[in-house]
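Entry for zinc ion complex. Fields follow.
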Amino acid sequence: MKQSSSLEHLQKAIQCETISYPDRSRIDFKEYDKFIDFVKKAYPLLHKKAKLEFVEKHSLVFHLKGSTDKDPIALMGHYDVVPVNPAGWNVGPFSGELIDGYIYGRGTLDMKGQVIAVLEAVEACLEEGLVFERDVYLLFGHNEETGSEMPDSGARLTRDLLKSRGIHFKLVLDEGGAFINGKAMGVNSTVALIGVGEKGYLDVELTATQNGGHASMPPVTSALYDVFQAAMKMESHKFQADFNPATNAMFEALVPHMSQPLKFLFKYKQLFKPILLLALVKSPETASTVRTTSVMTMASGSSAPNVLAQVAKVNINCRIIPGDSIEKVKRRIETRVGPKIKVSIGHGTEPTDICRSDTPQFELVKKALSSVYPEFSVVAPYLMVAATDSRVYHGMSEAVYRVGPFGSMKDDRGTIHADNERISVDSFLKGIEFFKIILKEGSKA
Ligand SMILES: [Zn+2]
């Protein structure tokens, strides 16, 4: 397959305005149909050889039969995107314009770039006449951006369908991962990270009630005071930090590349645990990988400036570390805020289990990354603090990993869900090579 046609395909994919909204009536499904039509035309061999099923009308399940009955592999993705604010963009957000070696547009990184790279790689393998020994599934969701807990989540319903057929995957690969500067961890190079699990999510509402009355004769403490005092207790007593299987595996992988004195400290990390955890919680980035976090995100009181609030509320948004749980977090909050405050659980999902990184599947992903990016020779597993659709496949495979094989993400990560999202052409083409290796090696029986 020619490089120019691969680029054109990505541009065409970006030009479909597949914007996700939690309020499904706002979604323009014609754009989703346009995307599906484009995929049909652009990848004729895939459509000839694979069985295509639709779940919840717009999630795509491609199934390529392999020559053996061994456990299949799945490459996941989603083709919905988040809305744009055109005023902040230097180019049309859905133009797919190619400027100075970059393709611009909503979804280039999150994640049509990856979906198209997978499709290009599969089509190229089929053109070469490659016979997969294992079945290959391509699972492309249509509403990842609004969360896999929604009752109509394409990813969840697809999982249910495949589970009902008794399928167990050898490998599931989805978006995620990162390229980061290793300096903070004593590594003098870029570190490529592969996600092996995800934190949980929980909204907790704190409520204080009061009889109300006139603001000119205030009581000793108002409802707002009470609820904020409770919320402040959460701010000043953070959840306890500890190592978890994902951070343990990350440090183990990084120790050989660390410089002193960190190398020594992390080599004996159980011994130096208190000092290390103290250092790790200092930066928000590392703190989020070693403890459950909580932060105030919303507050409400009365509806007029001179009226006392009868009901005052603060929302605490928590991200739950593996090993912790919704129930445990709720109990700890109740103990901390005291009996005067009502604690109610809102939207929540448990953390996933952590996939091991000493598996042949992890080695394969690592090898494929290093072979297209020899400059990123340090590869390590890590805990993702954001959620992806792949969380629903924990339990259906021992190897659910998250990876973004695009080197330009290192500098352009901040454009995800923001203005001027872009992917470098070089990275995109390397991403295709990455998936070719995964398909060729990963589908061997
Ligand atoms: Zn995404």
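NOTE: The pocket of zinc ion is lined by residues 78, 110-111, 144, 175 (CB under 6 Å).
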